[in-house]
Amino acid sequence: MRVLVVGGAGYIGSHMVKYLATAGTDVVTLDNLSYGYRDAVKYGEFVEGDLGDATLLDRVFGRHPIDAVMHFAAYIQVGESVLKPAMYYRNNVVNTVALLDAMVRHDVGHFIFSSTAAIFGEPEYTPIDERHTKQPINPYGRSKQMVEQILEDYDSAYGLKSTCMRYFNAAGADPGGELGERHQPETHLIPLILQAASGRREDIKVFGDDYATDDGTCVRDYIHINDLCAAHSLGLDRMRETQQSARYNLGNGNGFSVQQVIDATRRVTGREIQVDIEPRRTGDPAVLVADSTLARRELNWQPAYADLDTIIETAWRWETGFLCKQ
Fold first, then answer.
1. Pick from 228, 115, 109: which is nearest to 158 by CA?
2. Taking the model in full, what pTM does it have?
């Protein structure tokens, strides 16, 4: 089997490329390197180019007998999406439609889509299952929900089967230390805390310590990057076997507060971490945890890195290795 991974030079995409390649799958990566890194693509063939370039897509599909496509090429910053909605709708929706049209033209019938918990908006209950109301509250979440709706229509009209993986908080790094998280700017909690531990930043800002949780800080569901990759691979296998589209919420099912993550990072690194308490941010729910029962049942998926200290340890290995290369 040969899989095209779009956005394969980014955080999740590069880990997926390695996961597929080490399992014996032929991989072709397409990325415009606007947010990804060429040196993160260590397996298979790399094609530099834009997702919305129909001519390039036809050339890639014409040159390679692609069996399936995995999509990790969305813009993901919530705040930026509010300030620049056109940028998000153009890349996340319009360019994805260009990719889907190329798949239809070249008779490629299986698509794995990197979706998000942001499609649910403010949680009505937790843990959040697939039946939860979908009311995204920002352009980023709306762009992902739009693509999910488009995929349903492409299934009905063209028979293009899709599996949408709705992440909660992707975290950690390649256990071998080869790959890790390199967002610019960094917005995710665990790498920000690790940068405070390593000295790359002075402190970690905690937005609110007066929520209705045990320690007053927000609770989130952190899922290790390799567990995400395993779910994608299992989802592709099931989709090819059943020829049915599917939607899954992916998380550990365990919530950890911001304070618990800070405490765990102190344990793992042995470093003191300066914390700066800031006012709450608008739109941050107190608790956001996934119900992954459906994925566990249908995909026989079981997170292998559910322990918070283990997740942080893999990310710390990447952070310290990254510093050594600077």
1. 109
2. 0.95
